[in-house]
Amino acid sequence: KNQVEQSPQSLIILEGKNCTLQCNYTVSPFSNLRWYKQDTGRGPVSLTIMTFSENTKSNGRYTATLDADTKQSSLHITASQLSDSASYICVVSAGSNSGYALNFGKGTSLLVTP
Amino acid sequence: KAGVTQTPRYLIKTRGQQVTLSCSPISGHRSVSWYQQTPGQGLQFLFEYFSETQRNKGNFPGRFSGRQFSNSRSEMNVSTLELGDSALYLCASSLGQISGLAGPYEQYFGPGTRLTVT
After folding, report:
1. CA distances from B12 to A101, B40, B88, B97, B115 (A)
2. Are the beta carbons of A31 and B43 separated by less than 8 Å?
3. Which residues contact A106 (CB under 8 A, 6 or more apart)?
4. Nearest to B42 among A34, A49, A107 (CB)
5. Whether residue A98 has pLDDT greater than 70
6. How many other C-beta atoms lie within 10 A of the C-beta of residue A21?
7. What's the pLDDT tens digit per position in A48-79?
8. Residues of A in contact with B99 (CB under 8 A)
9. In tens digits, what is the pLDDT along chain B, a chain of 118 residues?
10. Cβ–Cβ of B42/A42 closer than 8 Å?
11. Quick one: DSSP state of residue B102?
12. Which residue of A has its CA nearest to B45?
């Protein structure tokens, strides 16, 4: 069964500190992995999309890594800001041009405090 | 460029009623996907439309249906509402060519419609 597990479920860090969120998946055949940021009451916003051949992708202070062998991804946030407080969702697509399935993690809730 | 818009933003319905939600994608985007988000289940994929054709469907009962018009605007309908249908319904659009969401295309989400079933 295709699954996506995110950890930790929630996290509290001080402003300015770094943090790393984890996403482990058992999805096959792997197509791509996406990280989204969702502020309370708003729709998710795409941070990164990675395909099988990519192992690192950055978007400002956000850096995602992908290890296709161990089926693990991480999202590293550098020098956190209060505006980083949000839910971070990992989504893994399985499939090909003929069809696909989306597998969602439950998300990590991040709170950045002053 | 205007983003994805969803109407209405908030809706309260009674069990047994039916509801129609609307989504207008970003101009030029032909792929529209719908999602349900609840605190317990998180995000779940409902269906995707591309050029008026349903391209993929999640594991939801037949009470959930959708359609896409020639201008790429999309609607989803939920009939015979149940209490468990209370959720945030999100719509997303993308350029999504043949491979849809299996491909590396950016998805742009709307703000969602908050549906409460009483």
Report:
1. 31, 20, 12, 36, 6
2. no
3. A6, A9, B42
4. A107
5. no
6. 23
7. 999 888 999 999 999 999 999 999 999 999 99
8. 96-97, 100
9. 689 999 999 999 999 999 999 999 999 999 999 999 998 888 999 999 998 999 888 889 999 999 999 999 999 999 999 999 999 999 999 887 655 565 677 889 999 999 999 9
10. no
11. G
12. A102
CB of B103 within 8 Å of any CB in chain A? yes
| B98 contacts A95? CB cut-off 8 A | no
Q: Does A100 touch chain B (CB under 8 A)?
A: yes
Scanning every residue of chain A, which has its alpha carbon at the shortest distance from the alpha carbon of B112?
Answer: A43
Which residues in B59-69 are b (16+ Cβ under 10 Å) and which e?
Answer: ebeeebbbebe
Residue located via tokens 């609840």: B38
- Asked if residues B33 and B39 have their Cβ atoms less than 8 Å apart, the reply is no
